[in-house]
């Protein structure tokens, strides 16, 4: 069993430790394109001057990604925060499994090959970009090449368009080369092509049950061949650009590729299907639609008998999906497990769009409670609109609920995520980003007053940057920067209890993985020895 030892020389205090995650708030360039800098943020500005304030690395190798050119994201960020150390993440594990050929030696791959040999089509559904947050196009290429090598006759790709982790109108940069690649591979009797697709926010990639219609549109396009018809994926994209100058890739309507009026690649009995995203949050719902026998969330019309595999397993607790090509990171000994074993009560809250971030990602990609008697998870329902139209989102409601906890609840550890700066940051609309940042600042100041009243300790940080860069500029022309950034994030500790004298430990190159041990210290425990070191210590004087 996991065990936490008490910390020598530590004085208990009444209030809780409150971790406030400002999703998408990095420390940026401090100029006009830095949305955090240009917003009016009196609370954050003063916190940045506090003696216990520092910045943390939140991207690249510091969070288990292949290289330091990889921006951070919420999955790897919350994994690192909640597990206290860095695990090689999906992006890296898949690259390695492709390089060693391990992908092709497992049971799932041979099942897929079996389907192909028996005359079935192999379908690859997923996000087509090099964003490296949910997927990478090079990994898709490697899978397609392996199909050709192994004489798979018929392959169909169902291409979800990104425009969120990459440039907002970059779809053709990926789809044209993919179409070319598929044409090249279509030799010696092979027939490989794109069959359907659509923008990721409209097609297939919903998360946390926010809007199942998105999955239904995807199912209709990929499986049933229902949707707006085009002669090719690139033609669909070009047409959408021509029809609406303001459209961006992530919001493009689902499409179906047809020939002589008939869809070229519906999904049929006997086929194999690979969902080639490695990240789980937006892969779980479509996997459920393929796998569940009793499925009542939307009418599937038909449910073909296919062999379905994820590139990874997306939820280890719920075993979604059952079959997968690459073993996911084995994230164990999470802070939640330790705190539950020590009998510490906790409360986790966010709105729908980030609810799984503070539960599922925080707990190492497990969806359930660890100990229901000690934990409360609370979700505030997100709006169903483009978030630039409601940049305040549910920050005030989350704040209200945390305040209720602070006044009457029993939780000794509270964690919350404000989605605003990330979700609005992904729209790239400067005037909305400003409101998002200011909303979070206002909520921060309400929360800190209450943490003070409760005699607790507040930690303010972020999982990665986003709002801290709103556009890129080339030859005087601005392009919205909707993706995350490579910037470090703030790490602020405001100790209202004054029960202990806290000092920085001076860890060099600190990152998000150092936060869990720091929380242990603030709660009066010696951090587990496998954790990255605490950023603060109780000084005994
Ligand atoms: C998304 O899924 O919305 C983006 O690809 C990544 O955003 P997140 O990592 O902040 O959730
Ligand atoms: Co984001």
Describe the fold and architecture:
The protein is α/β, with parallel strands linked by helices and 541 residues long. The protein is 31% helix and 19% strand. The longest helix is centred in the last third of the chain and has 25 residues, at 430-454. The structure holds 3-phosphoglyceric acid and cobalt (II) ion. Cobalt (II) ion binds next to loops.
Task: Give short descriptive properties of this protein.
541 residues; alpha/beta; Alkaline Phosphatase, subunit A; 2 domains; 9-stranded mixed beta sheet; binds 3-phosphoglyceric acid; binds cobalt (II) ion; Metalloenzyme; glycolysis
| Count of discrete domains | 2
Q: Sheet bearing the most strands, described?
A: 9 strands, mixed
Number of helices: 16
Enumerate the spans where pLDDT stays under 50 for 5 or more consecutive residues: none
Summed over residues and divided by their number, the pLDDT gives a mean of: 98
The helix content is 25-40%
CA-based gyration radius: 24 Å
CATH topology of the largest domain: 2,3-Bisphosphoglycerate-independent phosphoglycerate mutase, substrate-binding domain
| Total strands | 22
**Overall SS class:** alpha/beta
N→C terminal distance: 34 Å
CATH superfamily of the largest domain: BPG-independent phosphoglycerate mutase, domain B
Write down the CATH class of the largest domain.
Alpha Beta
List the ligand species: 3-phosphoglyceric acid, cobalt (II) ion
What is the percentage of strand-forming residues?
15-25%
